[in-house]
Design goal:
This protein is mainly α. Helices cover 55% and strands 0% of the residues. It has six helices and no strands. It has helices spanning 19-30, 35-45, 52-80, 85-90, 94-100, 125-136. Helix 2 (35-45) runs antiparallel to helix 3 (52-80) and helix 2 (35-45) runs antiparallel to helix 6.
Length: 140
C-alpha cells in the first residue's frame, strides 16, 4: 500500500538540545491536534466516503500526516539527545524523563497521553470534513 523511502521528507538537523522546547513540540506529535491524531483521523474517515477518489485523497493525506509524525519525532529526538541531568531537571523535563527517558512517546504538552479520543470518525463525510478542518485550525 505504501512505498516507504527511508529518509525524512524534510531533513531535521538540530545541533543544540533543548528540553523545554521538546516538551512543547511533543504536543505536535501526540497532542490533541498533533500528527498522530491527524493520520488516524484521515485513515479512519476514508471508509465513510462513497467516492473512490475522495477515499484515495484521504488516504494520501493520512499518509502525509505519518510523514509529519516522523519529522516531529526526529525533532524531539534531536532536542533531547545528550541532555545532562542538570538540564533535564532545570527545564522541567524530569517527569517525562522518569517514565520514558529520551524515548519518543505520544503525549500533549501537559503530559496527557495520546488516545483515540483525540480524533473523530462519525461516518458522515461532511461532519468528518468539518472535524478535519477544525483540528487543522482551518477557519470554517
Amino acid at each position: 500500500m505504501w512505498n516507504y523511502e527511508k529518509r525524512l521528507q524534510f531533513p531535521v538537523n538540530i545541533k543544540e538540545p533543548n528540553a523545554k522546547l521538546a516538551q512543547v513540540i511533543m504536543s505536535q506529535y501526540g497532542g490533541p491536534d498533533g500528527e498522530m491524531g491527524a493520520s488516524m483521523r484521515y485513515l479512519s474517515q476514508r471508509y465513510a466516503t462513497p467516492y473512490r477518489e475522495v477515499s484515495g485523497l484521504l488516504t494520501d493525506i493520512g499518509t502525509e500526516e505519518l510523514a509529519h509524525l516522523e519529522m516531529v519525532a526526529a525533532i524531539v529526538h534531536q532536542l533531547t539527545r545528550n541532555l545532562s541531568m542538570e538540564e533535564i531537571e532545570k527545564c522541567g523535563f524530569a517527569p517525562y524523563y522518569t517514565d520514558h527517558t529520551i524515548g519518543i512517546w505520544p503525549q500533549a504538552a501537559g503530559g496527557v497521553p495520546f488516545n483515540a479520543c483525540e480524533f473523530q470518525s462519525k461516518g458522515d463525510v461532511i461532519t468528518d470534513l468539518f472535524e478535519d478542518m477544525a483540528a487543522d485550525g482551518t477557519p470554517l
